Amino acid sequence: MHTFFGKIICFIVVNEFCERFSYYGMKAVLTLYFLTYLHWDKDLSTAIYHAFSSLCYFTPILGAVIADSWLGKFKTIIYLSIVYVIGHVVKSVGAIPTVGNTDVHISLSMVGLILIAFGTGGIKPCVAAFGGDQFDEENGAERQKFFSIFYMSINAGSLLSTIITPILRGDVKCFGNDCYALAFGVPAILMIVATVVFIAGSGLYKKTPPKGNVLLEVCNCIGVICHQKRSRRSKHDPPKKHWLDWAEEKYSKRLIQEIKMVLRVLVLYIPLPMFWALFDQQGSRWTLQATRMNMAFVRDSLHDMLNALMILLFVPIFDLVIYPLVGLCRINITPLRKMAMGMIFAALAFGAATVVEVNVVETVVNPAPAGKCLLQVYNWPEFFKGHFQTEVSLEGNSLSLSLSLSLLCQDPPQYETVTLGETSKNLTLQVTFNGETSECLQTFEEKKAYSLIVDSVNTGIQCKLVEDNIQKSDDGNPFLRFLNKGPDAITIHVGDVEFLVASGVMSLNKSVSRGEYPHVTCTLPLGDCPHLNLGLLDFGASYTVILMEESGKLVPHRMVDVEANNVHIGWQIPQYILITVGEVMFSITGLEFSYSQAPANMKSVLQAGWLLTVAFGNVIVLIVAEGAGLEQWIEFLLFAGMLLGVCIIFSIMASFYTYVDPSELDKVCLEDSGKEDDHDDLKKMTDDIQMNKKVKSTRL
User: Fold this and answer.
1) Residue 601's closest CA among 658, 674, 672, 666?
2) Which residue of 64, 157, 167, 325 pairs with 17 in a disulfide if CB–CB is 3.0 to 4.6 A?
């Protein structure tokens, strides 16, 4: 790349790196901020998070209109960057506990997020287009390299911010708690740096002046066309070659040609949101899939950084190796063909995710449907020495659960489905042992899972019903509970989690960190008890530990309610590789294509249109995920099939697209202008002749 251009691009790329660090660094701790600082529930936190993300992708159109119509790209970036910085500062101040009460913190946080959304969304289409403006049309190859470097800077900023910002929040303490003020303050500083760096290169930039209110002019032009078509239809005027040609009488041919160029590209954008619908599920569905997998040797932070790491690796490989090799094979791989191939790779990624999901769900206990619940049996071995049978009956329907009395519980756990009926959820439980039957009445709720503890008392057999947790944890950690058969209450510490278990009582299920626990400390009312060996508490499992006194010692018996995740997270790597290859071919190419096919006065607008496809992709996810209610592997397969179908449609549309060189527009318009000038000169000469004739006639 030319040295002069290299200096210019350095300012723009460093600006983008700092801005993306600022944005993704703030988002990395935003949900935790809602949950732990503002104390919102998960639903509200998720809703606000996605509302903010959507606003960030709908505001680019506003920034694009401001840049192309009034201020120009350079001034728009400067002014909206200042708004961006103010938003970060307000957000950071709202995270200081000593500043006002909770209502003040919420107000400052919302104002900060809105300002950030307008800042980041407003400058997003301008920075990429401004960078492209630095290259002349004959330097298309250099411009393509710029967009690759530009995209790498985005991912480099994202990568570092997801490492550093969570450390600033958790490892640094301020005001006696997690330091959210610092975690939001550092992104604010990076945004200030981004603005200063961008301004520092001001003297080197090529600045394209704004062309007036382009969007309003386009809307007026289309309005005129609609009116002309209605009024001329009655006059039986010959049809026009293109419907936009109806505006030729009031608008220049140049504007009409520019609108044609933009509309041709926007029509191509119609199928594109489907790609983003799949791509953005890396942060939602794929992350949830990972929590149900064995994450041994892999930390959550590394999993979150996987896509950014691969982007930094794959972009130079494609630019320096793969694309040149394809060119040597004399294969004409156009931008639209690259994008279609990117769609295919994304669909293959979801095919791989489907295969993984099918294996993952084998360790998941499916919840009972409406009107039913799940039930398993626990047995005290010191009372029963033979076999017993538990019968659950209601309104003539019966269900039998049998258990060998040499076991505490089924291994592996085997829940039976119990029908609750339409009017009553009270079931009579009948426990039969040696021909004698005991009954107890228990209350159930639909869609829940229960354990029936069969115990001995002086009067015979006793039943106790406890609710089970069969859900995998959101973070992949195991759940643990204790059932104390000992004579005294006991306090147990598993890592940082404390369990207080009274005699004969089942404790609550609590999430603990995954790991080996050979020496768990416990405390009895009269002193410490021997360390308990709980063994490995593995990813995603749910355990019940029965504490029993044997030979004067407290002995733990560990039962598995939900099996541990047995599919290693490494099996997700193929789907990440495929989706990243798809991103390199689709996203980077689309970014450059949007710039190259736009007229000079509408480049930011078309960049904003490109970004809107991301926003609509998220809308598709919400519609399918919330509306369909499918099993996860079926949903993955559905998305893959939908994208393949869209890819076929896009390929057909692309085959009819004719690539344009915006610089050729000047030549065409000059030729048309020349013809119009010749026509005007001829008309003027004719008018002069007619005027001379009239003058002579008057004299005569």
Assistant:
1) 666
2) 157
Q: CB–CB of 630/622 below 8 Å?
A: no
Distance CA(247)–CA(229), nearest Å, equals 9
* Cα Rg of the chain, angstroms: 34
Report how far Cα 504 is from the mean position of its chain's Cα atoms: 46
The pLDDT assigned to 396 comes to 43
619-629 average pLDDT score? 73
Contact 669, 257 (CB under 8 A): yes
CA 562, CA 414: separation in Å to the nearest integer?
10
Q: How many helices (H) and strands (E) does the chain have?
A: 20, 20
What size, in residues, is the chain? 700
The residues that bridge with 438 in the sheet, in sequence order, are: 431
Residue 452 · residue 463 · CB < 8 Å: yes
**pLDDT tier at 630 (50, 70, 90 boundaries)?**
confident
What is the per-residue pLDDT across 412-468, written as a single tens digit (0 to 9) for each?
557 778 777 665 577 777 776 656 677 777 888 888 888 887 776 666 677 788 888
User: What does DSSP assign to residue 172?
Assistant: S
Q: Which helix (H) or strand (E) holds 13?
A: helix 3-28
Burial 148-166 (b: 16+ CB within 10 A, else e): bbbbbbbbbbbbbbbebbb
Residue 101 — very low, low, confident or very high, per pLDDT cuts 50/70/90?
confident
Tokens of 85: 């910085």
Cβ neighbours for 77, distance < 8 A, ≥ 6 positions apart: 67, 123, 126, 127, 130, 198
pLDDT in tens, 12-29: 999 999 999 999 889 888
Q: Count CB-CB contacts under 10 A for residue 288.
A: 14
Match 């039930």 to its residue by tokens.
Answer: 375
- The pTM is what? 0.75
Q: In what order do the strands lie in the sheet with 497-501?
A: 497-501, 490-494, 520-524, 527-532
Contact, 535 vs 515, CB < 8 A? no
